Records
---
Amino acid sequence: MFKRIFRRTRVLTLALPIIVISLAGCRSTLEPVAPLPTATATATPPLASPPDVTATAPATPAPPPTTAPTTEPTASPTPAPPSPAPDFEPVIGLELVAEGFTAPLVLVPPGDGSGRLFVADQTGLIWVLAPGGERLAQPFLDLRDRMVALQTRYDERGLLGLAFHPDYAQNGRFFVYYSAPLRRDGPPGWNHTSHVAEFRVAPDDPTRALPDSERVILQIDQPQSNHNGGQIIFGPDAYLYIAVGDGGGAHDLGVGHPDIGNGQDLSNLLGAILRIDVDPTGVQPYGIPADNPFVGREGRDEIWAYGLRNPFRMAFDTGGARQLLAGDVGQNLWEEVNVVVPGGNYGWRIREGTHCFDPRNPTNPPASCPDVGLNGDPLIDPVIEYGNANVAGGIGISVIGGYVYRGAALPQFYGRYVFGDWSRAFARGDGILLVATPGEAPGTLWPFEEVRIATSATGRLDRYLLSFGQDANGELYVLTTDAPGPFGDTGRVFRIVPAAGVSGN
């Protein structure tokens, strides 16, 4: 059994001052990070700092306490939960599905019953995987001539999101989020403009999109190159959710960042998760759902939740209460995962995780800070938090949001949240897979532990973790690369499978 990691709220931990480098919406230290401590054999209740303990997960993960949107779900029903395993061992295998990508960031099914999977590469290409996993020779769509030129050593821009319309099988519509050059009327000196755009598939060829069918429905100017968010997903309510970072730089300061920070500013779309209707009546490019939380009050109507730094990957649970979970990359000390609720304020830049934050002294958290934002909304704590590589005993550099497992291949993981971290070091790929068990009591942090990979000689990923994917059956995929930036062809897609019966990764 591996280490179970616990945190409690508002614990101030001594941090080491560092030089900040922007990374996947994050910072990095170039020094390798020590391995996670080895577990001991004695279970211990949650403490202020992470003990070296072994603990047994609850037999059946309890549903997370926070409520989800009240609209009726339209997603396909998920299989009934299997009988719970008496003991939970976080051990998996990884089965190679496809390779030869550069930086695969999104894997999604089109929802048309074809059994295919679509992979969006940061470089601007969307690829089709046949039901057997074979990658088709020609890309589904090539957006490279519409995007900014990417820096191969490291870049957070590019093709960051892909989502198929819930009625894709009938209407052939899908949506992308990509980094375009700064629009003509954009603020002088800003870096680029994020585009959310609609495309259509060729009516006579399901393996090819129509490049000329693009309809840009939303543009968001970005002052810096990093913290772009970029995940787009359709919710169970059939609305499109869009994750947007705080505009980049560091500490939510500088050009393009107001005095209160973009995370707390409701007058723009940065540092927020948006919710829009892509099937509006009339000629407008999108509509505003009537129950969006800032309709009729101060704030942009598109905003669903705010107070976020860089919500890099997010996903709805396809079972249970259909909750929305989002990983939010931290600044200097803490990484977090949030259950996102309408109107929720997740604290950035008043807090980093559950801890107070001072943007002008980021490595020394103040002893106290407000419990509400400037708009009066209470600050919501994350459900998962861990120290990053800049904290003694920290885990990694940038949290990568994942999925609640709803498949059938690994019944012991059913209802648990699988997520990870980009790497424990910048200079070499050392990504981490993690699994959390939803907490039984509201307001408590979820316990989590590292997942061991039985098909790896080291038991670890040994690559940079870029993202996760989920197929129509609820099975999960891991997207990796050997390079810290969008360069080369070492990008791979793995399926998470039972530990037995698969060799090598």
Note: Residues 1-85 have pLDDT under 50 and may be disordered.
---
Amino acid sequence: MSTEVTSAEADRTVREASDLMQARGIRHLPVLEQGRAVGVITWSDINVLESVLQVDTDRMKIGEVMSKEVATAAPDDLLSEAAARMAAAHIGSLLVLEEGRLAGMFTATDAVRALASLDLSMRS
């Protein structure tokens, strides 16, 4: 899990989210309101908005288009449970919440890194 998580407020524009994600090299951006996680916007979401729907991302607010049903985990959840939750929901990240506050993010990249450290054969 990454504990240094970049986030944005829901009232920021989608363009600002896109610029922030490009600058930080990230694909998932938790959305906060008054410090509480209320959604997530992904790089894929932004690409669809810009390329397919051709919306004005300079005017549209993140809160208007973010995914509000956010998959979450607790910091002490097992990696296998978190990975299984992501696979079942076909998603690339979980927000890690502690007492309702964003404590980190667990992404598919984190899962692959954990798997790589096990050094198992493809037959395992």
Note: The radius of gyration is 15 Å.
---
Amino acid sequence: MTDETEPAATPGKRGYVPFTGALGRAICERVASGETEAAICRGEGMPNRATVQRWAQTLPVFAAALARARAVGGRRAYNGRTLEYDAAVAQEIYERICEGETVKAICRDPEMPSFSTYYRWRKLVPEFAAAMREAREIQADRFCDLGWEIAEAVTPETAYATHVKLGQLRWTAGMLAPRRYGRTKPLEAEVPRQVQTILFRHFKIETHPQTGQRRVVAYTPDPATMTPKCDKEGEWTRLPDVADLSPEAVAQRQAEIADANAPDPDDDMDDDAGRWEGGERVYD
């Protein structure tokens, strides 16, 4: 990049820095390495961003070199303002809002992002959005202090104007921090009630239809269908002492066992009690 003649410009608030080929190359190299233009322009002896923007508008060679550097550094620009998130610039915006400055005044600063960039950061960068909410609450506290100072300085001649100012400050503080200064407090979202399911186990004594042994069977409702399912079966008891083994006595005893195992119409657990096949209990 060769030195070019820069048109006359009015020195800025940080002091006027004239364009040189070496300075232009240094800026482009730092932009190509990934540094933001805002961070570069805050350095000692560097021009402000308005000056760099003016150089890009009036010096074609520098403008082309800066565009290539931005492409290499992975940055896009609109009217000389970077769109990528810059933590240092975000911190400066946070501090200026905390001091009471408006977003409109900040975004009008040539060294600050535009309105579109500011709102894009708020939408896409969670930490920036959280910082802005905190800055707004701090700003609301400052407005309350300012309102007290205005009220103390009121005179009969300025009473009406003071009333208008205090009304606006009260409204603004309520908008910035509605939980603290708003007239209508936002309601917390209701927490949905948690459904608690209690399952009761049902125990039943069943008798083997062939041996006469007994055991305890436990049933628990299925949480999905709420129908009883057998979940545990106890051990069979040992055979009882039998004195009469005549066919009539055995038939009578089997009839008694069958009657004892007959389904109870009032017991809905029998619907899932299973059936006997080959001396074993089978559940569908």
Note: The first strand starts at residue 77 and ends at 78.
